[in-house]
Backbone:
């Protein structure tokens, strides 16, 4: 007759086998993986077309986020910072306990969302032949929101 394992004191009613197992590559939580992917997509999205269109005559013009000015470059570096934050944690370097990593991720995602929304609403005059919005700016917006969601997911896992 098989005996059941006793419930662990910190398991909140779950057996040890029911807990989330470590993921390959050392990441133990889903929030870290989502944060890493969202940050990577955010940084790559700065090199996709944010504006597209054509003038009266000529080829279709596409303007990538990097060429939209400071805000496009900041979106790239925010995505890079999110990826670096996860990489540092995996390397064993953690932030002080008074500064939760999830709060930093949420703040970076919010800042990136604001920057992308500014570029989504206000197209610079120098890109007027390319007056339409390209797929890249929508990818940037979704990636920024995904960074916020990843920070919230990480915060819920820290509890």
Residues:
């Amino acid at each position: 007759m098989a005996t059941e394992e006793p419930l662990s004191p910190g398991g909140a009613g779950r057996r040890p086998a029911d807990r989330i197992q470590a993921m390959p590559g050392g990441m133990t939580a889903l929030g870290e993986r989502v944060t890493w992917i969202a940050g990577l997509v955010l940084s790559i999205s700065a090199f996709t077309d944010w504006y597209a269109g054509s003038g009266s005559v000529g080829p279709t013009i596409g303007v990538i986020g990097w060429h939209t000015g400071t805000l496009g470059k900041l979106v790239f570096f925010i995505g890079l910072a999110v990826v670096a934050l996860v990489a540092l944690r995996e390397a064993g370097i953690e932030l002080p306990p008074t500064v939760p990593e999830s709060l930093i991720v949420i703040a970076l995602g919010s800042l990136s969302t604001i920057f992308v929304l500014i570029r989504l609403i206000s197209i610079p005059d120098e890109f007027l032949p390319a007056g339409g919005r390209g797929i890249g700016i929508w990818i940037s917006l979704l990636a920024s929101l995904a960074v916020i969601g990843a920070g919230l997911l990480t915060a819920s896992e820290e509890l």
